Amino acid sequence: MATLAELAASRTALGEPAVDHLLRLTASWSLLADLSFSDMVLMTPVADDAAGAYVVLGQIRPNNRSTMLNEDLVGSVHVASEWPFVARALAQGERVVVDTRLGFVDEPVLVWAIPVRFADRVIAVLVRLQGPLRGPSSLYEQAYLSIFVRLCDMVGEATFPFREEEVAGPGMPRVGDGIILLQGDGRVEFATPNATNALHRLGIYSAVEGHTLAELGHRVRAIERALAFALPTMEEVDRGHDVAILFHCVPLVARDRVTGVVVLLRDVSDLRQLNRVVLHKEAAVREVHHRVKNNLQTISSLLRLQARRSDEIETRTALLEAERRVRSIAVVHEVLSREPGEDVVFDEIVRSLVLLVEDTVLALHPVEIVVNGDLGVLPTDVATPLAVALAELLTNAVEHAFTQFATHHQHVGVVTLNLYRRGAEAVAEIRDNGRGLGEDFSLEVPTSLGLSIVRDLIRAQLHGTIEMSTVPYAAGGGTFVRVVIPLPSRR
Asked: I need a surface site. Which of 94, 246, 353, 468 has the fewest CB within 10 A?
């Protein structure tokens, strides 16, 4: 289905500012539909149609009453003779109310055609379709309808929707959550039972009609701003740590003067409590990763200390290699201690790994490590083994690619790490300009513990592939390694 902007561009002569105004209206008009207990459609003339036709740009159903429109009308075109009240509202710029029959509705309906004004001209008509009322309306329904009428007047005066923000939509309080109607001086005119219950949660038990909330012990700055500046505002009012009520204030404006404020209230205490629980859990997870990192660093220090006390070169080398592998795992937990969760920004890990390799390896030949690209956000169960594998491959390249090579070449050794995504795969490529692999090299029979670890991590734990080859001398020489890791699908 085409969007409002697409329909307006293809079917109407409306300019971009007018379309933006209609987009803001449809972003907020669930408030109108709920206050009027009615279905609503937005119609505007079709461009270059001599007979006069209207296209439906938007449609909304009320949340507090069954719909009268079983079919979607968005994008449909209707001839002017079927909608004479729309033509009158467009021509006269005034609200038209008629009791009529429409072809797509089984029973007579009360129709309001509300002109939508923008930049001193009527650009569309908001059509309200109200079915027969079920019995006498209550005082609250009458109050809802009175607020609806005032908002319709604002639509006709181009003061609703507001330019600054939406006043209804996902995550915002709805009419059913609770409404307080304030007069122009901030005194309460009426409050619905749900709103009264929310005020009780804040400790306000006395009658509120005729009083301001400040007089009752709760100063709500959002109400003051709405009255002073005629702008929709929102504020969360707390009572201790257990109660939180969200106040969403919509000013009612007539002839450039604020005549009242509609306050929609929602009790968000449970949501705030849940947020606090999540924050506590995140703090606990961060603390766990921090302690794991510290423990790994302690193990790393012990291995390094033991290596210094060893007289055997092979023993010292093995301990230092084990110490570096432990530190590469600690790098991942250090990042996770800052950003807890199931995912981690791998680019931060790569930067730390490069510093780790540069600090650890004392090569006989100057070596520069260059990183291109990134892998974005990776699951932690992928990031940890991949970090260990890359640290091992980078160290292997820096330590072994340029031995016996430096005496014949005076240029600086370069190790390049390219990272990118290919569909649902993470790809890491390591290229050096060193001496390459031996003629009898085979990854299936690795000559070092490091390559055995890398092979097992990538194939067994990450279910990926690894290939290593010597780059021909004509292409620059050296060794090329490609690691491809399948990424888990997101549900």
From this structure: 94
SS3 373: strand
What end-to-end distance do the CA atoms of the chain give, in Å?
25
Cis ω before 132 (30° cut-off from 0): no
Q: Is residue 189 exposed (0-12), middle (13-18) or buried (19+ Cβ within 10 Å)? A: middle
Over residues 323-328, mean pLDDT: 76
For the CA atoms of 385, 390, 393, 394, what is the dihedral angle to 10 degrees?
A: -150
Q: How confident is the model at residue 364 (pLDDT cuts 50, 70, 90)?
A: low
Helices (H) and strands (E) in the chain, counts: 12, 18
Long-range contacts of 457-464 (CB under 8 A, 24+ apart): 457/385, 457/386, 457/388, 457/389, 458/385, 458/389, 458/483, 458/485, 461/385, 462/382, 462/385, 462/386, 462/389, 462/486
Q: Which parts of 12-52 are beta strand (E)?
A: 39-45
Q: Give me the pLDDT at residue 406, please.
A: 46
DSSP assignment of 385-440 equals HHHHHHHHHHHHHHHHTTTTTTTT--SPEEEEEEEEEETTEEEEEEEE-S----TT
- How many whole angstroms separate alpha carbon 438 and alpha carbon 111? 86
The strand pair at 413-422 and 367-373 is best described as parallel
Beta-ladder partners of 113 = 96, 127
- 183-186's contacts with Cβ under 8 Å and 24+ in sequence apart are 183/259, 183/260, 184/227, 184/257, 184/258, 184/259, 184/260, 185/212, 186/212, 186/213, 186/214, 186/223, 186/224, 186/227, 186/261
Which residues, in sequence order, are CB contacts of 474 under 8 Å at separation 6+? Answer: none
The DSSP secondary structure of 211-276, one letter per residue, reads: S-TTTTT---HHHHHHHHH---EEEEEEETTTEEEEEEEEEEEETTEEEEEEEEEEE-HHHHHHHH
pTM: 0.61
Instruction: Answer whether residue 395 shows pLDDT above 90.
Output: no
Token pair belonging to 368: 């520069």
Tell me the pLDDT tens digit for each residue of 278-315.
666 666 666 776 777 788 788 878 888 888 888 888 88
- Rounded to whole angstroms, the maximal C-alpha distance in the chain is 101
Backbone angles phi, psi at 117, to 5 degrees: -100, 145
CB of 477 closer than 8 Å to CB of 433:
yes
Torsion, Cα 148 154 155 158, to 10 degrees, reads -170
Q: Which tens digits make up the pLDDT trace of 186-204?
A: 999 999 999 999 999 888 8
Q: What is the pLDDT of residues 5-17, one digit of tens each?
A: 999 999 999 999 9
